Prior knowledge:
Chain A is of the alpha+beta class and 260 residues long. Chain A has ten helices and six strands.
Amino acid sequence: xxxxxxxxxxxxxxxxxxxxxxxxxxxxxxxxxxxxxxxxxxxxxxxxxxxxxxxxxxxxxxxxxxxxxxxxxxxxxxxxxxxxxxxxxxxxxxxxxxxxxxxxxxxxxxxxxxxxxxxxxxxxxxxxxxxxxxxxxxxxxxxxxxxxxxxxxxxxxxxxxxxxxxxxxxxxxxxxxxxxxxxxxxxxxxxxxxxxxxxxxxxxxxxxxxxxxxxxxxxxxxxxxxxxxxxxxxxxxxxxxxxxxxxxxxxxxxxxxxxx
Amino acid sequence: xxxxxxxxxxxxxxxxxxxxxxxxxxxxxxxxxxxxxxxxxxxxxxxxxxxxxxxxxxxxxxxxxxxxxxxxxxxxxxxxxxxxxxxxxxxxxxxxxxxxxxxxxxxxxxxxxxxxxxxxxxxxxxxxxxxxxxxxxxxxxxxxxxxxxxxxxxxxxxxxxxxxxxxxxxxxxxxxxxxxxxxxxxxxxxxxxxxxxxxxxxxxxxxxxxxxxxxxxxxxxxxxxxxxxxxxxxxxxxxxxxxxxxxxxxxxxxxxxxxxxxxxxxxxxxxxxxxxxxxxxxxxxxxxxxxxxxxxxxxxxxxxxxxxxxxxxxxxxxxxxxxxxxxxxxxxxxxxxxxxxxxxxxxxxxxxxxxxxxxxxxxxxxxxxxxxxxxxxxxxxxxxxxxxxxxxxxxxxxxxxxxxxxxxxxxxxxxxxxxxxxxxxxxxxxxxxxxxxxxxxxxxxxxxxxxxxxxxxxxxxxxxxxxxxxxxxxxxxxxxxxxxxxxxxxxxxxxxxxxxxxxxxxxxxxxxxxxxxxxxxxxxxxxxxxxxxxxxxxxxxxxxxxxxxxxxxxxxxxxxxxxxxxxxxxxxxxxxxxxxxxxxxxxxxxxxxxxxxxxxxxxxxxxxxxxxxxxxxxxxxxxxxxxxxxxxxxxxxxxxxxxxxxxxxxxxxxxxxxxxxxxxxxxxxxxxxxxxxxxxxxxxxxxxxxxxxxxxxxxxxxxxxxxxxxxxxxxxxx
Lengths: 260, 718
């Protein structure tokens, strides 16, 4: 049920379709012939869909309603249960700041903040994260009015091709949210789940350390920014909690960052 | 000073007149990138776009026996199926494309690929080129000779013999190879490409598709890395266009990470047996080397051996070993990291045999480095100070107690980097804003920023009054971003175009300012008389002389005046800590001192050097493409197993650019590649210095370090 009491037609979290199973990526990858083995698994799944345990409703494999709460707005989508959060963001909502690079929870280019933690959007099923506030790079600054952290990335040239940059910015944001005055070691640890190929780590270290003292008080700006967004609608008007409250509450939950 | 400068011949401004050139300026597209708003090819989704996925061959060498795409064709959402290789085709490497499918969603395309029925006749393959003796085919190259190497080696006071091994590493661009193809008319194609050769790829599309090149438009606003792997349209580019044609809709085809790592580019492997001879004072006298390596089915590059040091008596022979691996691609400074690692390792081993400080051996032989001798001498002195080399260096083998051993290593390198052919069109608008159009690309190197800086500085306008328009093949043609040739090419072409535009403005403004055009200058948003700056007009006033019509002018490289030259030198030093119990190598500090002529943007230039150090550290410590001899498949085609350096792995990094007199007057020279050459050699030498023995294989993984220690101790690790 949605919080406003209206019937919530979105499926429960944790449906039947595990992405790893259907796509067969992890298993097949280890054997070095992703295409073939994945094909066999998918074919088998199609012919003999696994039976649902008693009392559990099966959703999919076709598109089902999914409601996501992204950057303080609610989005109602129709997604196959196997759709990852990353693909939903990029392909359905054109929120393309989160990049698809490894697509299996290693490189960090798709990092978003979920439940107050940095997570890999490629390793979350969209259907599984319906109840959770999701923050993407688009929730921070815009090019003409950057968030202090992004401004520090620009100033210290903590980016070259820029493809990994949004993921690093979000990982750094999560780090600074939890560790407002990080040491260099904290920065290394906080950004250790992300890779950069151009070699911008020197600038990143400076950027994150420089941004740390400037991080306070940006939350209000975030919300003001979001009101201008054309897409989606305000979560407040939709019965969901405002972001700050959700963030505080979620801090209590223990969720480990997914390192793949 | 020599002759007075001829104002009609384009030159770079004197140091005192440079307002922006040489300053530390943040890259102009930084805000778009850091805010996630920069749209790369992978991010675009034109109206009605379909998604493509490909069936890739799982065998290193095979013939297609049968192929049935019927079931795939009938799958939901499928709009086009294109057979890339037909029945009977012989496939030469694993993960080669066989069939491509375009569907309404990516998941549907992937499902359809899985429904394709294909049978292969598996053929024998060869993928293990490191053992030359076992290769079924070897293509020996010509022997390169100078003097009498064998006699000199026999007569040498000290000589060493060593073997050094360097497997291939991947480009592994963060944005995979790929494109979106959209037929705007039956024979007109627009392609958004992740490419480092916007101009070149447009004509490759035309050739592959049999349409006029004038009908192809290639767009690459943002490119997520290239490193030498993205010059070609590639077969998948043509395939994508064919799918779009069949489907009658735009199609996006991006490689997945497995394919990206397996087939979309790697650096050829290189292995060598080397003998070096010297006098007791360290003077190099003799060199004999035999090297081999693989670049896939075709030829591999020949690493320059000996590297940098033109030892008077030398001979070298390289053999290419064909393998059933995807073709290598130009990997940042092609052949040079190999040449540097192989050569500098041998020379470092020679220094150890001489019981000499390798810095002294390098200094002793600078005369045979040619024109970069003076540069090296200055840089070595600076690097010595930045690293504290003289104070901290010890003879090979750290005698300190405890398992963690410290060591220092060094290497030097050179590169060409002359600006490539490039055209530029500059337009100055009536509102005193200006734009430069070049069909170049910014793959993270800062090209967009460099063009804007040169344009603004030349016109005396602020940076925010100019635009660099790049990444579109409809702009004036320019070269691909390779060989560190881009910055010299685009900055020279922009300078000439801007000066030509300025010439038109000066001609119109001169009478009003009661001066000759040659007496004018454009500074601080004004056109003014050099000798009497109070006689000035604003840019808007000057442009009003043209009515409402903008001023446009073209410029090219090469062209009049010497704005770009060639031949840089660089020195790098590494400080490592090696745990001899675990074999783990940690980078403590690296120093890079680099020359690249006149620097346009100090910040992005330094970033190229930092990036090279980091990429070099990554290749030295972790990177290696591992191919299974049984199946012929790349085993580590994902980020978990193709290891790269993370932010905590790179230690302290110190970069010093050589600027000022002696450097600036050489013009603009590229820097993307030269600093990529030395890191591996410097780190490998530092490890040898720390642990007392040479680890002959890179990357310097714990296992290889322990193996080398064990071999030295006369026992094998089980």
